[in-house]
Amino acid sequence: xxxxxxxxxxxxHAAIAATGRVPEDxxxxxxxxxxxxxDLTLPTFKAARQAGVAPPKLASELAVALQLPADxxxxxxxxxxxxxxxxxxxxQLAARVLYDVLSYGDTYGxxxxxxxxxxxxxxxxxxxAKRMHVxxxxxxxxxxxxxxxxxxxxxxxxxxxxxxDWGKQFGVILAAVMRDGKPQAEGEHALAELEAxxxxxxxxxxxxxxxxxxxxxxxxxxxxxxxxxxxLWQWSVDITLQANRRNYDRLGxxxxxxYGESFYEHMMEDVIAxxxxxxxxxxxxxxSVVVPEQDKLPLFLLQRKDGGTLYMTRDVATVLFRLRxxxxxxxxxxVGSPQELHFRQLFALVRAMGYxxxxxxxxxxxxxxxxxxxxxxxxxxxxxxxxxxxxxxAVQRARAVIEQKNPDLPEAEKQEVAEIVxxxxxxxxxxxxxxxxxITLDWDKMLSTDGNSATYLQYSYARCRSILRKATEDAxxxxxxxxxxxxxxxxxxxxxxxxxxxxxxxFPAAVRDAGARYAPFVIADWCYTTARExxxxxxxxxxxxxxxxxxxxxxxxxxxxxxxxxxxxxxxLGIRVPERM
Length: 581
Hints:
This protein has helices at about 5-20, 45-50, 55-65, 90-105, 135-150, 170-180, 185-205, 210-225, 225-250, 270-275, 310-325, 340-350, 385-405, 410-430, 445, 455-475, 485-490, 495-505, 505-515, 520-540, 550-575, and strands at about 40-45, 75-80, 85-90, 120, 155-160, 280-285, 290, 300-305, 330-335, 360-365, 370, 440. The protein has about 575 residues and is α/β, with parallel strands linked by helices. The strands form four sheets. Strands 5-4-9-10 form a four-stranded parallel β-sheet, with helices on both faces. A three-stranded antiparallel β-sheet has the order 1-3-2. Strands 6-7-8 form a three-stranded antiparallel β-sheet. The radius of gyration is 28 Å and the shape is globular. About 45% of the residues are buried.
């Protein structure tokens, strides 16, 4: 798709090429530095070197030689030493950008670059028989946002919640329940009891080897289809999914599939046989299957000596299933940084087996969550925050902010807005910075109405909607007080208006950039800058009390477009917007 700014880039490129002074492969227009009053710039160094002239001289000659059509988006061309700078035409910018935003509506910023290609996004992936905590929220939130972004870019996305419901860790749960009894509680309380059983058994297991042997025996019996083990396993899976569903619903998280590790149990023998046949692994004298060192990666097991499988076995099976079932162009795993080596080994093994050579296998890493005192959150430290309680706390704190800011809201609306704002604060706190960085749970910062927070962005959207409602009330009609009349929109000439318009025009490029870099923070940064630009516009350019009716209408149209674009950006992050705050 070609939006207004794309057309501007195309026109600049064509105009430079038409001079005959710069070869096509050397026309590298780019975004100028922040202090340069232009929208695009052409550095002339490479072309000047090839032509044997000084870069400033070539830039000046190009400026004279340029011929622009009458309806061009290029409004001004200026030479700055070796740079040729291009600015968008103010009137054309206003009319075309606002047309893009308001005509595309909820799909403004979407693209077709991924058309015909499939991307698989694996995220969340909690362990069965355990409550979701902040360690899971990062994968869940980042994954849902990337899934939204790739869908907006035109890809067919397949989202998979790869549950940890198999292997040695589940053998520990089985052994503990067989010894101490099955929990009688329901929901999160049952999961809490299972966690306590698991923790107690694991602690004792370190001192008593017989307990470790018992856990391994139960994990093997589970794989071999023991009825008692399967029954308890199914019960654990069911209560885990039921408890997690409420958290997912509150976060707006959805999956196309929930294929746990157990889904691939019937593929284990084939995976091991294929790895051996391709020479990617060998069977050791103790009966285990070993993948040797390669490309500076240490050796690892693909099968235990007792015949049991491992995470790696099931992960290889998962890749092979996905290749066969979905024919993806890319498989993306959203998993914490400590698993970096595991994924490097996985990707290397899959390719050594002769698979996925034309498929991108990507590990999107994320950092640790810290509390306000700078301590990593962990069960062992006693400061772990569980997801349900985290969301409840966020909503409670958001409710207090709403009571302070808008006490006249109806009771039901207050609670609805508190849910939207509280959950949004948690999501944005994760996504507004590089996923690889650690994050901190700082409630004051998360719920601030004047800083880089979801609350600030939601408040900016709500302010836009409030202005539009007031305009409709003043007009005494249900019709929106906006226009796409180019002559009216040409009135948007003030610096604050033009700055906001230029930023709205950059949204499609931000979406593409976020997809290319696996970086939701690019969208978050665009949203934050939009809110700040709107704040400046709101202060400097009266809307409802504009100097003329036509200017009022033009500015209301800009307000409507800002609201729409903000809503679209926040949707990509998985954040809802309230109409009032």
